[in-house]
């Protein structure tokens, strides 16, 4: 039972790391080029996926969404007040 659990955990880590590698943009990959991470993940069953999760991918993906401007009432809108 214990060996089967280790195999299931190893396969789950491998699948997660592989798809995370595919989904991560090139600019968010650290330490190695994206193509070089693939053999690291596949050839080292536990160590490779863990290295990818902790060292390979930047967890601050992309840029934050832009803030929408605050809506102004007519009495606070300078363009509206100019037209009065």
UniProtKB/TrEMBL annotation:
<keyword id="KW-0472">Membrane</keyword>
<feature type="region of interest" description="Disordered">
    <location>
        <begin position="59"/>
        <end position="84"/>
    </location>
</feature>
<protein>
    <recommendedName>
        <fullName>Cardiolipin synthase N-terminal domain-containing protein</fullName>
    </recommendedName>
</protein>
<dbReference type="InterPro" id="IPR027379">
    <property type="entry name" value="CLS_N"/>
</dbReference>
<feature type="domain" description="Cardiolipin synthase N-terminal">
    <location>
        <begin position="12"/>
        <end position="56"/>
    </location>
</feature>
<keyword id="KW-1133">Transmembrane helix</keyword>
<keyword id="KW-1003">Cell membrane</keyword>
<dbReference type="Pfam" id="PF13396">
    <property type="entry name" value="PLDc_N"/>
</dbReference>
<feature type="transmembrane region" description="Helical">
    <location>
        <begin position="35"/>
        <end position="57"/>
    </location>
</feature>
<keyword id="KW-0812">Transmembrane</keyword>
């Amino acid at each position: 039972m214990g060996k089967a659990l280790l195999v299931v955990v190893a396969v789950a880590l491998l699948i997660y790391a592989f798809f995370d590698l595919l989904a991560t943009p090139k600019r968010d990959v650290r330490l190695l080029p994206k193509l070089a991470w693939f053999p690291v993940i596949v050839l080292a069953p536990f160590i490779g996926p863990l290295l990818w999760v902790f060292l390979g991918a930047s967890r601050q993906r992309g840029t934050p969404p832009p803030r929408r401007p605050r809506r102004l009432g007519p009495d606070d809108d300078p363009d509206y007040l100019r037209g009065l």
